[in-house]
Amino acid sequence: MTATAKAKTTAPAHTIRAALRDAAARLKAAGVATPMLDAKLLLRASEGLGAAALIAEEERLLKHSARFLTWIERRAAGEPVSRILGSRGFWKHDFLISPSVLDPRSDTETLVEAVLAAFPDRSEPLLILDLGVGSGCILLSLLAEYVSAHGLGVDVSADALDIAAQNAAALDVSDRYEGREGDWWAGLEHDRFDVIVSNPPYIPQAEIAGLAREVRDHDPALALDGGVDGLDAYRAILAHASEHVAPRGRLFLELGHGQAAAVAALAPAARLQVVTQHRDLSGTVRCLGLAHAY
Ligand SMILES: C[S@@+](CC[C@H](N)C(=O)[O-])C[C@H]1O[C@@H](n2cnc3c(N)ncnc32)[C@H](O)[C@@H]1O
Question: What's the whole-model pTM score?
Fold first, then answer.
């Protein structure tokens, strides 16, 4: 019997404590980086338990053993916990996700913070555009912060827009949110925005095959593929950005690791200048703030 098969969770009537121990062993054998954490998250969701109840009730039998074991096998096969549960916490909210949207990353909260720092008055009636809105995590978080703002989310994926609309309803901002299917600026001829945000696809094509299976096999290619050098979407966005940034407005772009200089170099030809840069918790420059270069 292989180590993996030995570790497989097969016992029919597990206490919570035993189920967690066996599930964590199964996930560890499958190469999952955080086996006990993932096992706890899945068990809590499967049993409907808070963190404290998980400890208080660890000697009782599982009520939903079959579901938990199925979820553990999916995690062992590389599916992220958020994909299994269909939801991801981002900023201050839980966002519904589906196979059509990028799983929101905590690094992207850097972009939300950058906007909040540049526009500190939360009552400003900002007009905000999100290019590549995906689940809506950036734009909808901003609409929840700026209570008088209105937002337009553009995405080439109709399925992603459907998820963003559901998330807008869940955050109670539907009346200030509009989704539009399209290719970056298409259909936005004369519109100007106080804030334009984008977390575009930025992975160089040749690197996609080598990404972690959680990303490569579960995030949509449309959300990852940045072309040969990873910069295709930045070129497309910067080509028309100055026509759409309001006179005192800002464009905020999320960056992949090590892309700051290359993206900043595209700004002058776009008649924009980099005015702020923002690091994520690991120290990587994760976001650039750009304004008109008058
Ligand atoms: C990296 S994901 C970001 C999603 C979300 N804003 C976030 O931060 O989690 C990029 C998004 O851009 C969308 N996209 C890709 N190409 C596009 C295009 N040509 N026009 C509009 N949206 C596009 C993808 O469908 C995807 O939802």
Answer: 0.93
